[in-house]
Structures are given as C-alpha cells and as structure tokens.
Amino acid sequence: MGGIVGYIGTDNAVDVIISSLRKMEYRGYDSAGITILNDDLVTYKTAGKISELEKIIPAGFNGHIGIGHTRGATHGKPETKNAHPHLSSNIAVVHNGIIENYMRLKEKLIEQGYEFLSDTDTEVIAHLLHRTMKDNEACSLIDAVRHIMTKIEGSYAIAVLCTDEPDHIVLARKDSPLIIGLGDKNYFAASDVTAFLRYTKNAVYINDMELVQISPGGVEFYNNDGQRIEKQIEVIEWNEEAAEKAGYEHFMLKEIHEQPTSIQDTYAGRISELEGRVILDELKMDEDQLRNLQRVTIIACGTSWNAGCVGKYLFENLAGIHTDVETASEFRYADPVLCGQIFTLAITQSGETADTLAAVKSTKAYGCSSAAITNVVGSTITRETDSVFFTRAGPEIGVAATKSFTAQLIVLYLIAIHMGTVRGRLTPQTTRDILVGIKQLPGQVQRILNNKDVIKKCAEHYANVQDYFFIGRHLNYPVSLEGALKLKEISYIHAEGYAAGEIKHGPLALISSETPVVAIATKGHTYDKVLSNIKEIKARSAEVIVVANESDNEISKYVDRVLRIPDCHELLSPVLSAVVLQLLAYYTALARGCSIDKPRNLAKSVTVE
After folding, report:
1. Does this model's pTM top 0.70?
2. Which residues contact 246 (CB under 8 A, 6 or more apart)?
3. Which of 153, 274, 531, 608 has its C-alpha lying 20 to 30 A from 440's C-alpha?
4. Could you tell me which residues come within 8 angstroms of residue 339 by beta carbon, excluding any fewer than 6 positions away?
C-alpha cells in the first residue's frame, strides 16, 4: 500500500512533491522518499512520516522534475532501505501495488549480477528496466516500461525517471489507481486527486495497462501496444479546502460533522416525497429486469461490507428479494452460483479496493447486471460496472470511514425503495413515509452532534478498558459490527460486534464487570428482545451503554449510560446510531492519545490484496 507522486513543470518540484505526499499520507505513512532529476538522480528517503523526510532534505534542494512516495509496508519492514524511490544505476522508480512474481524475477536478476539493497518487491522493477535498456540501446524508457509490463505479475502504479531521458516521467498502471493532473505548464501524477487539487482540478484517470509520458510540453497517453490514445479530462468538483481540517483537531471529527451535508447531498435530486418515489437515473436496468431479478449479491470489504449487511435487510424487507453479502476477498476465490438474473452490487468508498474490483470482474462471465456505490468519480470501479451510484460525500481523508458509511446507507435505502416500488412491494404511502424520514436525517444528525459532550464523557469514562462488546438485532446488528470496527481501528481496544441473540452461544462467557457492552436498543420490532439480552448481561455484572431513542423513558432503569438518538422511522435508525458510535470511538481514541487519522498498520485505500 502507499501513494505515488510525479511532477514536471515550472515550480520547485521538491515543494510540489512534498505537498502532494502530505495529502496522501493516509494511504501509508511508515516511510517516504523523493527523487529529483537535475543532471543526475538525487534521492532522499527515510523511515517515518513525511515530516521525517522533510528534516533530511537540505535547504535549497530543488529542481523541476521528480517523483515521490509514501509507503504502507507490504514487502519488507518499514525501514529506510525499503522506502521508495528504488534505484538501479540511472533509473529511479516509485510503485504502489504488489509484484507477485518478484522473487522469481529477483533470483534471475541476481544471477545477472544485480545487487539488491532492499527487501521490497519494487526494486525488481528498477533493475528490470535497467536491464531492458542496457540490452537494447535504442530502447526508449516508455518502451522499456511497456516491455516489463509483460514480465511482472500483480498490481502496480509506477512512475519512472531515467537520466538518459531527463525531460520526462513515464508512468503505467495495472490494478492500482493512477490519476494525471493537467495544469498550466505544470503536470502531475498521483494515486489520488487530493494530491494535486491545490494546483489543478483537471484530471485524467488512467485505465489498466495504459502508459503515460509527461514532459514540459504536455502529456501523452498510450495503450499497451504502444499506440497513442485520447483520454477524457474530468473536472474535479472538490476543492482543496474540502480536504483540509477546517479548524477541527482531526479529519475524522471534521468528517463526522460533515454528515448532515453529505447525507443531504447524497439524496438530493433522487427523491420525490410528494410523488412517493425514488429517481435513480443512474440505474441502467429497466423495470422488467428489476421484476425478474432472483437475487442481489452485495460485494464489499470492511466498513462497506457492514453497510452492505444493512442493505441485505433493506432489500429483503422493502423489495422482497433474497440478498447475500459477500466479503470481496473471499468471493473471488469461491465458486459463486451466479446467473443473469442476479444483480451484483459492489460497495467501495475509493472505487479502487483491489479485492472488490477483482470480485466484480469475476462476475462478468455470468452475465450479471452490476452496479457500484462509490465516492470517487472516475475511479476504476466506475468502468467495471453497468451502473454507478455516487455518494457525493466529498473527500474523506481519515482512515476510519464515517461520512462515506452513512452516505452508502442512504444510497442503499434509495435503491431498495426503488426496487420495492417497481416490484410492487411498497405502496406510495409507505415509500413517502420513509422518504420523509430520510429528508429529516440531516437535522437529526446535527442534533446528535450538538449533544456530543454526553458521548465524550462516556468515552472518557471507559477509555482504559481492554475489551468492548457491541450488540444489536436486525438492522442494528451490522451497526454493532461497524461500531466495534470503528473502536478497534482508532483506539486499539479489542472490540467485537454480535447479533444480540448470539451472546448466549459463547460471548457471554467473556462478559464481566471489566467489559462494557454497547447495546443498540432503538425502538422497533426487536426492542423487547434486546432488552432481555441487556438484562442477561447485567446479571453478569457488566456495565451496559445503550443507544436508545429520545422518547424511551424506560431504558435508563436497566442500563448504566444512555446515548440518545432522535426518534425516527425504524428502518432509518442505523444512520443515527452509527453517528453516535463514530463519536464514541473518536473520543475514546482521543482520550487514549491515539493517532486518530492515521491508525497504525492501516491505510485508507486498500489497493493491494
């Protein structure tokens, strides 16, 4: 994991690259490096964050062409020797991805006399390029890159400098994100548009097996046959300020507070509460296709998988269609039973999650209709599916997903309602009631945010415990999973989420006075059952924190602390409960002094398997 940067232009390349790397540090932050090409390749790299790299770069170091990298270790420990860029004589390379056959290539290169200075897979790329150009003096750098693309297996986005061709950068991509930024006599390359937003909003998304050559005169795009191709320029709607903290202590807290806006932006233009219907022009399926669907298969990872689990309940309840939720990393290695009457729905915030992309690609052979829920326009997933639903949440920098999760839920509500209407499952009045509730959510989320001090005090009280349990039933079960995931991600407290009815089948053995339990007990048809589970837990001397409705005057008799959400439609409570649990995780991590935006060992976009 990690992020790459390339720049050529009239500004100081060192300043541009360091600035760009800071914007992508969420992708990996255990080491970083930079190479500037003047008369020769000059490289500085170190273990640690970008701030550590800045300390070793001498004052006055500059140039107009260079590459950089921030790393999340996949091959080799987070040590300076494993930091990128990696060099082979007159060639420097930065790489995001995994070279699966690197050991075979490495052994062959060692036999040919190449010395390896790192433990990474990336170094084979530099030596392969050097070998290719050495064996054929007429070979250009871009031809050498194109040649080695046939030799390496796995995923990559690479940027290459060579002193023999000092006026350009060559880049290539396979299964890892790569975006080109087009400025005024300034050209950028990065793994994420946030890297160059302060310089330009004009971006070109590179597809698999495409190559790019950046020079002072402009940018050229090639397919893997070496033929020039034309690419579409996308204008990014985000601005740099949207990717900054805006006065908040952490990006995560800022993004939690942005949810009233991100929720509203996500449903804007997609609902008509007056007519009692959902407008989904993005869905490339007619009503007959929707009526004939046999099953929905949701494919996702991490937080997006938890959102998909909520979606399962929604599709089955509102649309009456059987729904499976598959872990993407397992799905592609299974033997799925699929056919043309199955709708596959991928959920990925970045649109670049490697496992999800691979799983979606594997469904094409079955003729399934496919769609994606994503937050990033132009991301790879948008080219791999028939339909795309954008969450419109804006850039999310904190590693722990917050506003992207609730925005994904909103899209899932809308798809489920639309399917339910088409399939004759929902009446206009039922649809209208839910849509009215959705439009109330931004204000209700804001009420939770306005009363966050209660959540903060609760978090501080339990900040030093070693274990947490989260329980819920029906729609609140996946919310309990998400609450546990948020807590463990950023506070490093061991946390587990369970279906409340399952605690008798094992977890109850671990319940004690040292183990707080968060119970999601919002009003609904499983409320009484959850209340019974709470009493079972209290009988084992555990302290119970409950997420409950504002109008529930009874619940406080049975628990130790109550965190309130506004009264809402039963199906919509997961959105509000999720916000409460995000704040609980945030303030717990804050009290423990944890690195909230950049939790250890994690990266925002998992672009490798």
Report:
1. yes
2. 254
3. 531
4. 294, 366, 367, 368
Hey, which residues does 170 pair with through a beta bridge? 160, 213
Q: Please provide residue 343's backbone torsions phi and psi, each rounded to the nearest 5 degrees.
A: -100, 115
Quote the DSSP letter at residue 500. G
Number of Cβ within a 10 Å radius of residue 454:
15
pLDDT over threshold 70, residue 241 = no
| Mean residue pLDDT across the chain | 91
What are 38-46's contacts with CB under 8 Å, separation 24+? 38/63, 39/163, 40/163, 41/87, 41/90, 41/91, 41/92, 41/161, 41/163, 43/85, 43/87, 43/92, 45/69, 45/80, 45/83, 45/84, 45/85, 46/80, 46/83
Please give the Cα distance from 350 to 445 (Å, whole number): 24
Residue 44 — φ and ψ, nearest 5°?
-130, 130
Contact 148, 132 (CB under 8 A): yes
Residues for the chain: how many in total?
A: 609
The strand order across the sheet containing 322-327 reads 322-327, 295-300, 342-348, 369-374, 387-390
Hey, which residues does 348 pair with through a beta bridge? Answer: 374
φ, ψ of residue 264 in degrees (nearest 5)? -65, -40
Q: Determine the Cα–Cα distance for residues 297 and 300; give it in Å rounded to an integer.
A: 10
Q: Per-residue pLDDT tens for 68-96?
A: 999 876 667 788 999 999 999 999 999 98
For 236, the 3-state DSSP assignment is: coil
Q: How far apart are the first and last CA of the chain?
A: 9
Alpha helices in 47-88 (DSSP H): 50-56
